[in-house]
Amino acid sequence: MAFFKASASDIERFNKYFRSTDPSKCWEWNGAHHPKGYGTFRLAKTSVPAHRFAYALTHNMFIPDGMVIDHICHNRSCVNPDHLRAVTVQENSEYRVSCNKNSKSGIRGVYWRNDRKAWQVEVIKNRKAYKRGPFKTLARAEAAATRLREELGFLTGFGMKETQ
């Protein structure tokens, strides 16, 4: 699926909104931002996500049908094409690093069980919950959550360490 058409002047204008000094680091978007932190770029009288435009530029203006663009660096403002990959919505959800807002552990998939006075791990893949625990220490629960995600085939960011 063609994403959109961009002229040479559109691409030149896009490139003015970030610095690309180091290909291994995030390229911070300095233009407009969506309230959720994603960069936005004005193109043909519409606003497009800057990271999607950056991905499309490096892939002949093509994003596969049914795919979203995931930040493997987990930085919503990054437009470095080396930090972007096309994934399904489900994969994007699975790769998400942050925990839920109501989490007391601060670690994705780890929560406190009052009835057991211990930490519990729960990871969901393909709508099925996989549980481990209980664990007396948060560190052991965190390690178990990481191992479980690895067992289930979750990627940690194409060489980038998952920060949990």
Automatic annotation (TrEMBL):
Record Gene3D superfamilies: 1.20.5.2050, 3.90.75.20
Full protein name: HNH nuclease domain-containing protein
Pfam families in alphabetical order: HNH_3
Organism of derivation: Bifidobacterium adolescentis
Domain HNH nuclease: 50-93
